[in-house]
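Here is an idea for our session: we take a single protein and study its fold together. To get us started, please write out a protein record for me. Once you have written the record down, we can walk along the chain together.
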Amino acid sequence: MPLYIGLMSGTSLDGIDAALVDIVDDPSVPARLIDALCLPLSDELREGLLTLTQASRIDFATLGAMEGAFCAYQADAVAQLLARHALSPGAITAIGSHGQTIEHAPTATPPYTCQMDNPSLLAELTGCCVVADFRRRDMAAGGQAAPLAPIFHQAVFGHASRTRLVLNLGGIANLTRLAPAETLPVIGFDTGPANLLVDAWHARHRQGPIDTDGEWAASGTVDKGLLSRLLEEPFFHQPPPKSTGRERFHLAWLEQRLAGSERSADVQATLAELTAVSVARAARPFVSDTDTDLIVCGGGARNRHLMQRLAAHLPEVSFLDCHDFGWSADWLEAGAFAWLAWRRLKALPGNLPEVTGARGPRVLGGIYAP
């Protein structure tokens, strides 16, 4: 039973997701999720990472300290998964480590993307082979380096006769379109903020970082004027391929568009509606009347209010549960990087050029032996 571990820490900065996945070499046998956990980041580490993502200048001592602390958390997450199943490091074929994105600038000159990671140290601490630095190879070939999960979505969720949309509601929302029987190329792109802004606004005005079930947003009223100003953001009107992150969507971006008289609960309601509207507009070109499914993953899938707003904007879509496919909405992204590590060891492409805009398929990631 070839075992892989995928590690993912997204723009929400809430913790490190670790997924233990069984992957065999037969493409007709889908990857199987065995177990997973989330190791929450300490307040100190989370605030340090958040500072790095927003800094105009970074000192290398701070960067090194944060990277070392982050890597230690990754190794702890791996150790906990191994201990749960009485596994030795040698039982793991490879760890696929995404790292923590500090800045992603695919349209800069020259383009760049920075994921804080130390795969050499991770291999040393865990005793496992590590595959990391997945994004820069695609960017070197002219791609956006994101999103990378659509090729995994295709393997797990593709259907012979139905269009399937896979929506990841992490800090940033991204959408994958899978055509029936692969009759059309896979399309995947970021649609804009998901949890990033609602979490940040909640943390500023309420106790705790998360608006559980969207209860606070549901208590407010959508400010149509504010929503209109937010939707004027050029990113929402760009055609794919496109990707984004904290470097574009953050509280300062929101504050620049506030009139100053809004109730905080109404702003929260408007931010939730921004996610629902921007996702629905992005999905609309791929929705037919009778044969489109939507599979939602990521932390936002547990936000009842947001899911209700999505359903209101996409009434003709059938919502499916990740559990129906042997996966969990919480662990799909971590599972994708376990699967991408398997692709790397098999020297198989890990990107989809039609998604990222790269010049062609590329084998992604570097290998770090234990």
